[in-house]
Predict the structure of Constitutive coactivator of peroxisome proliferator-activated receptor gamma.
Amino acid sequence: MGIKGLQGFVERVCTDACRTVDLREMAEKHHVDHPDFPPVIVVDAMSCVRYWYTPESWVCGGQWREYLANLENFIKAFTAAGIKLVFYFDGVIEEKKRDEWIKRRLRNNKEIARIFQFIKTHRKQPGRGMFVVPSALPTFTRFALKLLGQKTVCTLQEADFEVAAYGLQHNCMGILGQDSDYLIYNTCPYFSIEKLHLDRLVTVMYSREDLCRALGLTLTHLPLFACLLGNDVVPESLLEGFWYKCLVTSPHKNSGYCRRTNILLAVANYVSKIPCSYSSLKHLEEVLPLGSDKTLLYRGVESYLLPGQQSLWIPPNLTNCQTFSLEQQTAMCQDKEIFQLAKEQHIQSENYAIFNILSNGEIECSNSLEDEHDTEIPGQALIYRLARQHIYSVLLEPGKGGAYPLVKEWFVYFGNPLQQPELIQPVEPSIPDGTPNLKTLWFAKGPDVEKQRYSTFLACFHLQEGMEELQALEAPVAAFCCLLAYLMMQVSSLSLEDLNAFVALILCLKGKSAAQLAGLQLAQVDSRAVHLGAVFVRGLTTLLMANSACGFPFRMGDLMPWEVFDGKLFQEKYQQSHRGCSLEELLEGNDSLYTPFQNLKSLICKACMAKKRTIQSRPRGYGFTTGSQQREFNPRFQQTHRSSFVPPYHNQMRKHLGRNPQPQGKK
């Protein structure tokens, strides 16, 4: 979260603490000064994703191939300068930050409502001033960087602490991010991602020493200074009276400054007069209105102490530097071997959400670009809940009496006030011989186990009857069909036109470069397609979770959005389908896609019919321009638009889309 207003204060008022630096030159100097330590920058990835996402289109679900190319270029720029990057992602939301997380999510809901209102009014994407990152961007960024060969760490506690600790312990050249907490930690230099010019590798370095000089403080004062301004440990609401007293006695009051700037200066003036000692801290705890918890200041100061560091504010015998110390006994999973593997895969960014469930039975999902006024499409959190319940039953062991432990979900959707987590009951999927245990799915070897992994994965999405046909497809296409079939089964308002759009998307996406997709122009943007794009991309994270739980029947790389989705291309296919265009236009005149199109559509409709779900035609073409020009149609594409689709094809998968006849096994 950082310290409210501190970053802007440094940039506007303490300009001497903002130094423009050339990272190439710094890397060369670092190499000379530390010949045994290659120049490494540790990256706070969560504070960088919005700067990495530069594709023009962002509302349609994400321009994933463009984004992947951006990440590749980012890495290449640093590699060319001899700088190694290490990327850190938040792996947990600590309890002390839950309230702030909830406030942000509720605030984001209002921003998203404004975005949909704009799209409905203007039929186009809002300007960058309303920008929100595409749904699940941080999750897929983590896997993208790993696939690009980068060291990627998913944390066991708040990322800023682990980033600062890594930078200090590994003698890093610096930290790249945008979080004012890095001005407080006594660690390596802090570089701005916001000010970075990638072409020249020039950015701004924020100097703690110069900040201290400007404020009359020492480095030792900074943690207390941060606590008295309000941070993750000490709530701002408890400090209003204290700030008022500081403002009254401050010699630095300036009517040209905003109130927050004057508070920062006044608190700095107050702190500068306090002797750095434990007794001073204890005295402060007594005089400040900290409520019932008089240890807030102590815990706040201690939260900035990195491994091996001590502070004059805290006696050495009391220092209890933060380390991850989750007791196995309190975890949902009591099997040490499973727990350890889940933890290792979590840290190395190899699984998704599994460790959070096995360790404390809690999981969260942030905002998605969903239209709260579209009552026909439930929130993605509700659409995928049944699949998650099946996944939880794969992961967790029932207790005495056969009852599973409940999983706490913090999922953002319209109508959920987030006042407390929802308690979700695991539900066993329908598997004839019962759900295999985790020991088997994760550790056993052989073709029979590979088949069990694949079938258990499919059972989480109610698709085990289609296993043979799905295995005959290329892995990304099979995963896409799993997700699409589940969506069509769960959301009764989805129509034949929606199905056509999704199937055309997966077929037409193949072979398109990032540059080709970037060049695709949309005459207008449809709000329902925006909503569906976000729902689909969130579904991919559910595939990731199921794949991780079932022992990786797919490679994680096959489940990534750049393999199966593009926001603008989906918008185009959605609009074409709903205005009743020909199949030739939908498939871009490529008649070799006709049979694969019918086959994939047949597979999905068969799965739906097995669950007594008939997909009806329901065009929503109003408001879109219908092309009036005549063209010559290839006879193979001539077909009438039926009101419902009866699958005419059953066993032609291998002929037209055949690949990977066996599941791929554990990675």
